Amino acid sequence: MSGNELILVQCAVGSRDNAAAIARALVERRLAACVQMTPIESWYRWEGAVQHEPELMLTIKTVRARFDALCAAATALHDYELPEIVAVPITDALPAYADWVREAVADAV
Fold it and tell me: Which of 16, 26, 74, 103 is the most buried (most CB within 10 A)?
């Protein structure tokens, strides 16, 4: 896999303020080209009990080479003890959009 490969990262967050702080930091640091926030409901097992919480899902577009730094930044800012940060490859995209993502996360000159 190429470090220039586009990936879609998802990260669930418990509050709008925390989600906005993470989104802004990732874009400002050129770790993400775009971050979208969507309200969701999550069911999960935590510390032996089933939990149900409203959350926000961050949908993050970036490249594979930025994933480790993105994880470190998001984890440092995240309110959760164990944040959900998962990535999947983007196998197809409008070529101009893919170019824009790569340019948006490229090192500043």
Answer: 26
Give how many domains the chain has, as a whole number. Answer: 1
Dihedral angle of Cα 96, 98, 99, 102, to the nearest 10 degrees: 160
Q: How far apart are CA 5 and CA 63, in angstroms?
A: 5
pTM: 0.94
CATH of the domain at 94: 3.30.70.120
Indicate the pLDDT class of residue 108, thresholds 50, 70 and 90. Answer: low
SS3 string of the chain?
Answer: CCCCCEEEEEEEECCHHHHHHHHHHHHHCCCCCEEEEEEEEEEEEECCEEEEEEEEEEEEEEEHHHHHHHHHHHHHHCCCCCCCEEEEECCCCCHHHHHHHHHHCCCCC
Domain that holds residue 54: 6-104
